[in-house]
């Protein structure tokens, strides 16, 4: 494919798409990166956006994330009308800058710099350019040709110039157009992408979209100290050396720890007691690992301040254990409820979180040091079942973190209904939460206390008019991996009257919604099992005996999971057991029709299932 053909194709797309004004277009998004002889990296990006109507004005609000270590500036920004005439230019006093905010922290290290530059006649074009310069980095380039989820990208490009003697590792997607040439002193690498659109995601179990991307990684780099990406061992050695000497705690803290563990007999008891001390006396703040900030604050800093990011809190925990002779290992992981696999064949910075590995005699303890409310030795939905890098000098290596089992995520709900001839039913509900629902509820109770209890109860009892009379949270101890909630209340909607019949819809378990196969654009990603069971006991107390008709029992089972519903009627007492299990799974688009059929079978059965009283 010649350069002339590519240019002609690009111009054709511009002409075609400029006539379609129903969606925002990124006409061009060009990134140019140069690495000079001193390894200083300069990034210049130029973006041209076409905005067609008022609803698309949100893209006239531009924000660029960068770090305090980078020299950042906007080169220019301007608005052009539909005839290509410049009608507005960005002024210096229109540029704002602030710290990035996080819903999990009261401080974040990244900086947001941006502007608002809109026009009131459509269509109009915004063109802007900015420059970033940095001396310390771990990637020559990490690029994706996506500007915004709602925008269509006509053309995006990356061009990198680096010295011929600079060794690098390269990984790029096959669908990108790639050119490689050389000048007298530089390697010139260029990638182009055309006609790029963000896949539609309409429900929670969508896989993370896989975009074309380029990773260009130096084999030798300077980030505070010299480092190498030759192997995971060499990368881990660099990380170890970067944080060398950071684990020493203060003498006052050491004395506190020694008094705290006095009289404890086992290593596990000591580790648990120190971990509880960490949870009770420190606060998590957020400093991005992805963009920078890889060097940890020392443990002594946390001793004094009583707060830190994941690196500092993990270093602090490591330092406290070290002070009593217990070895532990700083462990890097790509965290998130959606599992994002790292490329094990590309040793490099691919992580966004740190936890602590503590080997004991016959087991391994894993410590999440940023949470004040999760149990001791708990690997939850945020970090389970993925590769992680254990940092241990030249012995640094990848491990696979433990996987949540079916029992680890089981949610149980037991309902007792006392049904009489009046319109209201007395109801008692006992709920046991595990997995993600346990984690979220624990955090919310820790954060909001009693204000959250009633809201949580309503979320887990699917009855519109359920009036809660009493609620109790039974949280056995801080290291329980489950949360129990007990509720009593009244509902007038258990029985519906249809003509001369009384009808009860008995199956309360919620099935996630999925698109029809013809609309589905992404794979289904079930990152850990979804396991829920409801047992309902219905006690009928009528003055006259009624004929009770119950649905047929059902079992639907395949490679995706199991659905069961069983009804057992015995002298005015009905027991209903409903169970849903989705296996952890990656369901591609070729399999999706069968998966959708499985979901539809369950929903159709539930829709038609009713208890009839007459």
From TrEMBL:
Specify the DUF3857 domain's residue ranges.
39-199
Query: What Pfam family is a match, any one?
Result: DUF3857
Kindly state which keywords UniProt assigns to this record, in alphabetical order. Signal
- Tell me yes or no: is Signal among this UniProt entry's keywords: yes
Signal sequence span is 1-24
Concerning SUPFAM superfamilies, the annotation shows: Cysteine proteinases
Q: Record's superkingdom?
A: Bacteria
Q: What is this protein called?
A: DUF3857 and transglutaminase domain-containing protein
Q: What is the species listed in this Swiss-Prot or TrEMBL entry?
A: Flammeovirga agarivorans
């Amino acid at each position: 494919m010649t350069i002339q053909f590519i240019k002609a194709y690009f111009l054709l797309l511009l002409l075609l798409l400029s006539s379609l004004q129903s969606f925002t277009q990124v006409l061009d998004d060009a990134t140019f990166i140069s690495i000079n002889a001193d390894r200083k990296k300069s990034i210049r990006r130029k973006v041209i956006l076409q905005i067609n109507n008022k609803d698309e004005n949100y893209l006239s609000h531009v924000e660029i994330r960068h770090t305090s270590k980078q020299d950042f500036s906007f080169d220019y920004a301007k608005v052009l009308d539909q005839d290509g005439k410049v009608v507005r230019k960005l002024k210096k006093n229109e540029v704002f800058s602030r710290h990035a905010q996080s819903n999990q922290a009261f401080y974040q290290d990244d900086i947001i710099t941006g502007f608002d530059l809109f026009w009131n006649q459509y269509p109009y074009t915004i063109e802007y350019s900015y420059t970033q310069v940095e001396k310390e980095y771990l990637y020559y380039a990490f690029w994706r040709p996506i500007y915004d989820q709602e925008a269509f990208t006509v053309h995006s490009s990356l061009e990198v110039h680096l010295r011929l003697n600079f060794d690098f590792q390269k990984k790029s997607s096959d669908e990108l157009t790639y050119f490689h040439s050389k000048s007298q002193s530089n390697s010139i690498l260029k990638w182009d992408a055309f006609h790029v659109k963000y896949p539609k995601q309409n429900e929670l179990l969508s896989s993370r979209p896989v975009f074309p991307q380029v990773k260009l990684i130096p084999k030798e780099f300077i980030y505070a100290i010299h480092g190498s990406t030759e192997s995971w061992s060499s990368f881990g050695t660099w990380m170890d050396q970067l944080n060398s000497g950071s684990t020493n705690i203060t003498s006052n803290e050491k004395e506190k720890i020694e008094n705290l563990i006095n009289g404890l007999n086992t290593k596990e008891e000591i580790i648990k007691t120190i971990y509880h001390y960490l949870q009770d006396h420190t606060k998590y703040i957020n400093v991005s690992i992805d963009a920078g900030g890889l060097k940890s604050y020392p443990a002594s800093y946390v001793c004094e301040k009583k707060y830190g990011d994941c690196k500092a809190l993990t270093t602090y925990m490591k330092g406290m254990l070290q002070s009593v002779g217990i070895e532990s290992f700083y462990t890097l992981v790509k965290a998130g409820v959606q599992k994002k696999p790292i490329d094990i064949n590309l040793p490099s910075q691919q992580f966004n979180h740190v936890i602590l590995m503590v080997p004991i005699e016959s087991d391994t303890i894993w410590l999440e040091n940023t949470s004040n409310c999760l149990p001791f030795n708990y690997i939850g939905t945020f970090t389970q079942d993925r590769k992680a890098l254990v940092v241990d000098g030249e012995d640094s290596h990848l491990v696979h973190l433990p996987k949540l089992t079916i029992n680890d995520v089981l949610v149980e709900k037991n309902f007792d209904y006392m049904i009489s001839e009046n319109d209201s039913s007395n109801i008692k509900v006992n709920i046991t939460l595990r997995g993600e629902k346990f984690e979220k509820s624990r955090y919310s109770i820790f954060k909001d206390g009693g204000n959250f209890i009633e809201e949580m109860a309503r979320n887990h009892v699917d009855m519109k008019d359920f009036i809660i009379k009493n609620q109790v949270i039974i949280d056995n101890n801080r290291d329980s991996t489950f949360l129990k909630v007990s509720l009593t209340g009244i509902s007038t909607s258990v029985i519906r009257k249809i003509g001369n019949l009384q009808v009860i819809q008995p199956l309360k378990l919620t099935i996630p919604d999925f698109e029809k196969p013809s609309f589905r654009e992404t794979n289904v990603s079930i990152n850990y099992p979804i396991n829920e069971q409801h047992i309902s006991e219905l006690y009928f107390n009528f003055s006259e005996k009624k004929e009770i008709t119950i649905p047929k029992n059902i079992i639907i089972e395949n490679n995706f999971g199991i659905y069961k519903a069983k009804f057992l009627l015995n002298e005015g007492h009905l027991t209903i057991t409903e169970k849903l299990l989705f296996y952890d799974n990656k369901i591609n688009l070729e399999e999706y029709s069968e998966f959708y059929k499985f979901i539809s079978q369950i929903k159709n059965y539930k829709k038609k299932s009713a208890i009839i009283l007459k």
